[in-house]
Amino acid sequence: MNHPAPSMRPFGAEASATWIAAASLYFLLAASMIHFTSDGLAIATVWPANAVLVALLLLKERPRWSIVLSAGLVGNVAANLLTRGSVQGPLLYSLANGLEVVIAVTVIRRGAEVVDLLGSIRATIRFILAAGVVAPAISGVLGAATATMVYGQVFAVSWENWFLSDALGLLVFTPVFMAVFSGQLAECFHSKTVAERGAGLALLALVAATSYVVFFVAALPALFVLYAPVMLVTFRVGPLGTKMAVMTIAVVGAWATATGHGPVVMMTLDPVAQAHSFQAFLAVMLLTCLPVAAEVAERARLAQMLEAHAASAVVDATTDTLTGMLNRRGFERALAALQAGNAPTLCCVAIDVDRFKSINDQWGHQFGDEVLRHLAATLRSHTRPGDLVGRFGGDEFMLVLQVGSHRAGEAVCARVQNALRQQPVAADDKTQLMVSISCGVAHFTNGDNFHDVAERADRALYEAKRHGRNTFKTAF
User: pLDDT of 283-305, one tens digit each?
Assistant: First the structure.
């Protein structure tokens, strides 16, 4: 019996899991919205089910259209059959919803491999136009025609209901589903400290509590009160918090309005007018909050870029580009921080490559650079993380070691010289060059500054060179 290749099994399992999850979630959302916000004939007030499909398709570099759309079709038909009890209408509604999903995803993506709905003002505007205008307006023609032909509804009213409910469903729920499916929500939660998590959850709880009071408790219409906690969440938690806050208001408000509670019901007793009023309120809140959330995200990203640029500039200004070691400025800055932190006894070592000019003259500057990189790597491997290693220019290197005596500094010099003898550098295919160094050691005493100690180390270095090189001397 032939078995499928191992590489094919995960794809099939993943596709099946995606299909089952999408169909199940679509069915639950669609059935609940039809049951709670529709009389079984009219179009639901809010339609979040399509947002599930849009989110799944936007998250993939190569969308799996057949898997996601077929899952939506089955979930849609099943939900409509359960709540409306007919076959013709569910099939036509499913086609309209599928068309809406395809249009929304196509317009939002515009060839982009990675989609960030609220990542910038431009991305937010594109998302609002695609999900809030173009897709529901076009699909609404087929949806309203279905409501008219199958359920006897007025075409203009049905189209308006479809447009508003689907637009709000996509705008409110798509960002939230994308955050959940991509793991962004879990990642954001785990990246916060316990205090930050508590503050974020407290603010979202404030939004939920305020929504409950406004829609179920308040004796007078007070929808404007909801803006305060949402804006607070936007600035304190960020765009992801905004998505969660607006979704919370949409769920609580739709539930209240459908059950005859809240400020929208106080303003009119007409169910159609109630649906339109609530939809208009959510639309205004979205158009107000989403651009603000996008601006907050853009400013945060700009701040991160500036911070990274500043950090990079500091690294560039304090790092030797050839070896990646500290340059003179970075070395002196690091030493000042080390001495300010009650550092232990320090020892300074000045290092030169023996006959480096001859190496450059005979083998070229490119090979000379390779010799310097080889020495830098050897110095790193024979010093401890708390020690300072720097290149001051040319073949001049400097160490500051956190050791207790000059003898410990001499031991480091001996280990480095021995390592260089054991690891020659290939000059060409036939020639291996053994690199040697001369070292001068000087010990820090009370009251010494770096320049005084470095000068003593340099004098010891030149003394080592006068004694034949490839050795070390200590200044006392």
Answer: 788 778 878 877 777 787 788 88
